[in-house]
Structure formats: C-alpha cells, structure tokens
UniProtKB/TrEMBL annotation:
<dbReference type="Pfam" id="PF04773">
    <property type="entry name" value="FecR"/>
</dbReference>
<feature type="domain" description="Protein FecR C-terminal">
    <location>
        <begin position="315"/>
        <end position="383"/>
    </location>
</feature>
<dbReference type="InterPro" id="IPR006860">
    <property type="entry name" value="FecR"/>
</dbReference>
<protein>
    <submittedName>
        <fullName>FecR family protein</fullName>
    </submittedName>
</protein>
<feature type="domain" description="FecR protein">
    <location>
        <begin position="178"/>
        <end position="273"/>
    </location>
</feature>
<dbReference type="GO" id="GO:0016989">
    <property type="term" value="F:sigma factor antagonist activity"/>
</dbReference>
<dbReference type="Pfam" id="PF16344">
    <property type="entry name" value="FecR_C"/>
</dbReference>
<dbReference type="InterPro" id="IPR032508">
    <property type="entry name" value="FecR_C"/>
</dbReference>
<dbReference type="InterPro" id="IPR012373">
    <property type="entry name" value="Ferrdict_sens_TM"/>
</dbReference>
Amino acid sequence: MDNQQERLHFLFNKYLSDTITAGEQEELWALIDTLATADDFPESIRAAWNDPPKRDVFTGVDSVHILDSILRQPKKRPVATLISKHWWKIAASLLMLFGIRFFFQSRAVKPTASRHAPTLPAQKKVVLTLSNGEPVVLDDKAAGTIARQGDILVIKHTDGSLSYTRGSNSSSADSYNTVSTPTGSQYHLELPDGTKVWLNAASSIKYPLAFSPQKRNVEISGEVFFDVAQQAAVPFEVSSGDMQVQVLGTSFNIMAYKDEGCIKTTLITGMVKVIKGTGSCQLRPGTQAVLPSGGNNFQLVKADVQEVLAWKEGEFRFRDADISSIMRQAARWYDVEVSYQGPLPSNKFYGVIPRQHNISELLEVLEMTGHVHFRTMGRKIIVISGAK
C-alpha cells in the first residue's frame, strides 16, 4: 500500500469516527477526488461501502450518511461557481467509486446549469366523483361543505383533506364515491368510518358513503396508504383487481400500478391477510407480500419501510432500483413520457431526492454515474445507456 492509500484509510476512519479536523477533511476530499478512478483504489473501502452488512472498517455507519454529510458540508471558498463545480466533481467521483449509487438532498450543492428542461411535478387536479356521477374538482373548492348526498355531507378541511359527516338515519352502503389523483398529485382523506387514506399520484379509491354493519369494503388502483379505524366486529377489506387485503385495525401500503408488473402489500402495524383466489398469506409488521401480475402465489419479503413510504413523506427513495423502475415513478409524478433507446443499463441505483425538485435535477444526478444519459424534448424523455 503506497503512502496515498495509507493516508486515505487513515483520514476516512477519522472522518467516520468524527475525529477529523477541518484541514484533514479537506485533504480527504482531495485524495478521493484524485484516487477515485484509479485501478488500485483500496478495495477494502470500496467493498465496505458496497456491502454494508459485512463492512469492518465502517462498522455502524451507513454509506448514505457519509455521502449525505459530504454533500452538506459548508463551503468556505470565495467563488460560488468554483465551489459548486469542485464539490460536485467530488460527489461524482464518489458515485463512480461506490457501486453506481447516488444520494441527493435539497441542501446539497446543485450544478450551476441544467442541460434538461426544468420540468416540475404535473399540476393536474384531484377529482371526487359523487354517487350520482357528478365530478367535483377538489382543488377548486374552498374549505367547508362541498357536496350533500342525502343527509351525508362532504367536508373539505383547511388543509385540503376530505371527510364525511352523516345523519342518524343515513343508510348509503350502495352509494359510492371515488377520489382520483392525476399524475403529479397526492391526496389525503378520511373515510366515513374514520379510516385515514393517502393516495399517491395516478391512484384512486372507491368507497361507500356508509359501510355495512358486516364489512367495510373499498376498491383501489395505483398506490394507497391506509390507517384503518379499529372496529373489531367489522373487518376492513381492500380490493385491487382480484386480490383482497383483509384487516381489522392496522396501517399498510398497497402498490398496485398496472405498469409495475406486480402488486406489493406492505404492513406497517397490526396484521393483515392477503388473498388471491384460493391462496392467502398473513403479514406481520415490516413484511411485504409480492404478487406478480397474473400470478396466484405470494412471495413474502422483508420490507424497506422507508422506501415504501417515501412517497407519503414527499420523497423519491431508491434502494438497488433499476433505471426503468426509477423512470416509472418519475413519469407518474412529473407527467412525462419515457422511452428507451438501445439496451437498458443493468446497474442498480440508490438515492433520495425530494419530490418538489425539478426532474432535471434527478436526471443530472443519474447522469453523474456515467451509466445512463437522457435526451429531453418537452415532456418526452429518452433514456440511453452509457455516458453522454
């Protein structure tokens, strides 16, 4: 091991143990910038970053936090554009070095210019369809009573969410409402039984104005999170196509977009039973049932709850995601059309980016890996393997 590599090991371990000085930290970034593309870069550092459960040098430290910290360090150089270029060069070196992964937050330093149009999330509107088929554009309604269906009132609150109040003689189990979100929008509502629901972009939920005394049934498409009101004697059932999820009182997420090739049900709290035909399985908190489209057998896996619920927290969060998965999420949020030229890159990506950012920022960070680039034409994006 030469002197530079020894120094890199020494400084990196000091950085991770939070004992590094400001001067040593500057030296560390300079060494990474210099050595990142070298064939003899210390394999122990590369392996520790890419295989966190087995790392020795970086015990207890998440590689995401390392890069996050690097990108958030205060800059003391006098010329802003030079600072930006310097720090993004270091970030790019880290991306190439550590397993083709990326991490981007709102506080990170951004590139000085964008080669892609700054497409913001789509600005279409959320629609409530009443039991008589009348559409109500929720974005256009002020807070207060926005509809009356018999003696049931539909209330829009000051935070934009929706709830229902009903009279003592209400009996509307056969009358349904539907809330639909377009691309680029999310919505929160409270069902007549008190169950709280969050809809992701391009999603919908159909529910009765009053649930029956025997069962609470709703139908969904897209992606929906439920915090189910507890009623031990009245089970709650969610249908998506011919799959059902049965619960009593719990919180869970269902992702059932048709273009994803599967339905994923993730349990956060409580217990649920997932059913398809004659097959079924029970979930415990932190587990996920994956049902391939057209399949009948569930695969049970451990869920990355942070990744599953990132949309609800206003983030894109990717863990070992392929480029097509990332672009499907981007298409739903930014209302863009995505196509591919040539073979898809086989690399996996890891990252976080706030949903309120322009899509150009997401594309630029992906391009920094050197394994994919993009051509943009209005709301059309072409994905091309390899560096530009």
